[in-house]
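re: ur question from yesterday

yeah so i grabbed the chain u mentioned. its 466 aa long if i counted rite. heres the sequnce exactly as i have it in my notes:
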Amino acid sequence: MDDLLIILPATLLTGILAVLFELSWRKLIIPQWLARKFLHIAAVGTCAIVPLYLNNLQLLSYLVLGFEVILVYMVGSGKLFAEKEGRKSWGIALFPIPYFVLLLLFENERILIFLPMIILAISDALACIMGTVAARKHFNLSGDKKSLIGSSAFFISALVLLMSFWSFSEINLEIIIICSIISMVLSTLEALGSKGSDNFLVPSGAALLIYIEMHHPFAISEYLFLIASLLIFVLAVLKMRWLEISGALSAALLGFFVWRFAGWLFLVPLAWFLLSSSLIGRLLKSSHDSGFEKKHGKARDWVQVLSNSWLYLILAILAGILPDFSDSITPKLYAVMAIATADTWASEIGGKLSKNVLYLFNLKMHPKGISGGLSLAGTFAGFAGASSVAVIAYLLGHVSTMNQVVLISIVGFCGMLLDSIIAAFFQKRHYNLELNQYSDEPKAGFSEKENYRILNNDQVNICAKY
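ran it thru and got these structure tokens back, copy pasting raw so excuse formatting
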């Protein structure tokens, strides 16, 4: 009953504020973006504070789940929270997802609910407000305009919040540096977020980093070495034009989380994937897609980076959170990277050495360049790529038997075949009747006819890793 007396007024107040702020911009009282940020602070801030005063979080969890269903319907139908330019504002429906998970996981460690959500409430809003009001120059990493002023506001406010509410026995230089690194990582996540995705990324990233620091603290020297290594990596890949800025930052964040949760040795298969695909692509001068490397002559961005490594990241985080299961997770990590490497090597080598491919959709030979095709050279190259990752796992001592090496090789090879099958049947393609040719990319004279083909190349990669 006591919990209900806290939850009901908080829920009612949040609902009233949502209606008032929505009406305020529709009546042209304040700009829409400012009304949204005020609502963001009020709603997310309330979500951060309420769990601190509840005896049990179960009722709140049920309510959050119910509100998530309502928000998805309201945003999806366009009945509420539509952007001024007509775009659906999915960001407001994203933050309840990590909030619900935090409520389930951290009944006894509520600081891990409060801190991530209060950082989202205040720092994310300040980034937008300061960027809109004060910034003259902006950058675009993933779709939304961001600014250095906005990112600085996020960093400073997140640092202040961490230092103010995290329970430290004493504040010293080491604590300040650790909190600064966490704030820097979170501000980078916010800068990479677009279309509301930062409402998911920021609290998720904050909860993970605070949790791992509380339960498995890093020495300050390890943090500094990690940051220095990733800075060198970013400068190197940008210099060599292997990755766009968004791709380099995403890869650096990937490396940070993998190193922090699973250990630096698990960066080796990632580095091998990047290095081998880059060298093969340059040596063969192939125009085919190649994992982290170039895509149709352009450096890879954050989408291509994460489409090949998202499952590797999740498994690495689980290995750190669930150390008792790390031995069973480790082979799966290498299997995921074996799939990515096999697919990359097959595309690069097969695309260069083969003139025609067996298109799996109709089992006919087609000119190379269409996804979903297999060639003899590419097939052997794919198996070699998967096997190379399996050998690395054995050399690093992460697997101990040849049976495991063979199994990782087979899984990687089968994953490559699955990628080709999904691409053949579900990836968008364009057809030219006069030339009797298919193309993955839209071209003059090529039309897209099959409505059931809804995936692009990156989405195919995501599905294959799953």
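noticed a couple things. DSSP finds 16 helices and seven strands in the chain. also Confidence is low (pLDDT under 50) at residues 286-297.
anyway ttyl
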